[in-house]
C-alpha cells in the first residue's frame, strides 16, 4: 500500500514538474518574441511620423510582416502561459490562479488589437489608395498600436500581482521572486497611469517596470531549471 502511495505521489510530482517547465517554455517564448518584436523590430517599422512609417513598410515589407508575426507569437504565448499558470498554481490558491489566468488572457486580447492594426497598416500601405489617405490611415493605426501596448501595461501589471501573491503565500518558489513580481506589477500599473495622466515624464518611469523584468526572467529560469517545490508541512 505504501509503495503504491509513493508511486502515486511521485507521478503527481512528475506531472507538476512537467506543467511547470511547459509554463516556463511558453513564458520564455513570450519573452523572446517580445524582445525581438517590440524592442528590436518595432522601431524599424513604426515611427511617430506616419510618412516615415509608410516608407518603412513599402521599403521593408518583410520586416513589417515579421513584426506582425512576432506580435501574433506574443499573443499566443501570453495566452498559453496564462493557462499553464492556472494549471500549475490552482492547487496552491485557485482564486489567485484564476485571476492570473484572466488578466494574462485579457492582456493577450489587448495586444491582439495592436496586431489587427498592424495587419491593416500593411494592407493600406500596399494598396492603391491616394498617398494622403494612406498617411492619415497609418497615423491612426500607429496610434492604436502604441496605445494598445500602453493600456496593455495595466493588465500586464494586474497578472503579475496575483502571480507574485501565490508564490509568496505558498512558498513553492523563492519568496523574494514573488515579492519582486508584485512590486513589478504595481510598477506597471503606476507607469501606465502616469503616462496617461498628462504629466511630462522622462525615461525615469521605465525604472518602475524594471522589477517586473527582473522577476519575469527569474521566474522563467526557475520554472525551466527547478520547476516548482513539492508540498511540505512548512508550505
UniProtKB/TrEMBL annotation:
The keyword Membrane applies. InterPro entries: DUF4386 (IPR025495). The chain crosses the membrane at residues 25-46, 66-86, 98-122, 149-168, 180-198, 204-225. This is DUF4386 domain-containing protein. The keyword Membrane applies. Keywords: Membrane, Transmembrane, Transmembrane helix. Pfam families: DUF4386.
Amino acid at each position: 500500500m505504501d509503495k503504491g502511495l509513493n508511486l502515486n505521489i511521485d507521478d503527481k510530482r512528475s506531472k507538476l514538474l512537467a506543467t511547470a517547465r511547459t509554463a516556463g517554455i511558453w513564458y520564455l517564448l513570450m519573452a523572446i518574441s517580445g524582445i525581438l518584436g517590440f524592442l528590436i523590430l518595432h522601431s524599424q517599422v513604426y515611427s511617430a511620423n506616419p510618412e516615415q512609417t509608410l516608407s518603412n513598410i513599402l521599403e521593408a515589407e518583410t520586416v513589417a510582416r515579421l513584426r506582425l508575426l512576432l506580435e501574433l507569437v506574443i499573443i499566443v504565448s501570453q495566452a498559453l502561459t496564462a493557462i499553464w499558470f492556472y494549471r500549475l498554481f490552482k492547487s496552491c490558491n485557485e482564486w489567485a490562479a484564476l485571476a492570473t489566468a484572466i488578466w494574462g488572457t485579457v492582456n493577450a486580447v489587448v495586444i491582439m488589437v495592436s496586431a489587427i492594426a498592424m495587419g491593416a497598416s500593411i494592407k493600406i500601405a500596399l494598396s492603391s489608395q491616394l498617398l494622403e489617405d494612406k498617411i492619415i490611415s497609418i497615423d491612426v493605426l500607429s496610434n492604436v498600436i502604441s496605445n494598445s501596448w500602453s493600456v496593455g501595461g495595466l493588465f500586464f501589471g494586474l497578472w503579475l500581482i496575483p502571480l507574485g501573491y501565490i508564490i509568496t503565500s505558498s512558498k513553492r518558489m523563492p519568496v523574494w521572486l514573488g515579492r519582486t513580481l508584485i512590486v513589478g506589477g504595481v510598477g506597471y500599473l503606476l507607469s501606465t497611469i502616469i503616462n496617461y495622466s498628462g504629466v511630462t515624464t522622462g525615461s525615469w518611469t521605465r525604472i518602475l517596470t524594471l522589477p517586473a523584468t527582473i522577476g519575469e526572467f527569474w521566474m522563467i529560469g526557475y520554472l525551466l531549471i527547478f520547476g516548482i517545490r513539492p508540498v511540505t508541512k512548512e508550505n
